[in-house]
Amino acid sequence: MPELPEVEVVRAGLERHVLGARITRVDVLHERPVRRDPRGPAGFVAALTGRRIDGARRRGKYLWLPLDNGDALLAHLGMSGQFLVQPPDAPDERHLRVRLALDGAAEGRPFDTARPSPTQDKEARFVDQRMFGGLSVSAGGAELPPEIAHIARDPLDPEFDDDAFVARVRKRASGVKRQLLDQGLVSGVGNIYADEALWRARLHGERPGTRLTAAQVRELLGHARDVMSEALGQGGTSFDALYVNVNGESGYFDRSLHAYGREDEPCDRCGTPVRRVAFMNRSSYFCPRCQPAPRRPRTTSPTPPVLD
User: Fold this and answer.
1) How many domains does the chain have?
2) Hey, is 86 helix, strand or coil?
3) How do residues 2-29 score in pLDDT, each as one tens digit?
4) Secondary element (H or E) of residue 28
5) Positive or negative, the Cα torsion across 93, 97, 101, 104?
6) Catalytic site residue 5?
7) CATH of the domain at 107
8) Which of these is catalytic: 32, 35, 211, 282?
9) Among this protein's residues, is 143 annotated catalytic?
């Protein structure tokens, strides 16, 4: 599933190519991607047609396009969703689900009403092979769609509260990796970057938050920021053709991974083979030497009854 760096790459691409564009036509080619819109496909089309795109924003793994009437087009890429910007005459993609015809999209830079730029008609295409992602129109959601208001800020957000994060992690007895994946605590950190941050911090994902020092949590948070920033600089992580940016290009941060997907390969720090274990219907990768599993607390045997 695309994580924060991949979604941010897509958001930035949309910001470059569609700001200021007016949506002249909407084609829903399959109903499933708009299943979360209470208006249904016809209402979804009506709510978008004629609207101007005024921004491109993101919270965690969600992105949205604020519209000129205060609503927003809310999107989640799911497992295989892609937002592509194409010329109108480009052949349809095999798994094209929703098409937005755009008039007057700014070419290559953000929209500036004071300094108009050359424009070009384009299409924003939502392509999704597995159709776990989706689009919907959020009423009044231009600033922040209410559907995702419960999602926490991400570590790259300037308003992320480090102190509150550290305090909350240390109050919970659940494993630290589980906490990194809790979107109500911190958003955007998915399985890949959680494993990478934990490897850098030399922490096992099952280490309880209550057994971490404040310094350890801060260090882990710093590593999460670093690894996601580095991935962002390399266009994200692509293991197959399902994740691409708006121009159809794959990221290449997978070449820089130290833990995720490297089962039985030598650890880049100590040479010990990386292990993989099942975790929440997915996998965790770690070095058993650099990231030792936490010791289980001793249990006190019950006092045997005194017999007369």
Assistant:
1) 2
2) strand
3) 677 788 888 999 999 999 999 999 999 9
4) strand 22-28
5) negative
6) no
7) 3.20.190.10
8) 282
9) no
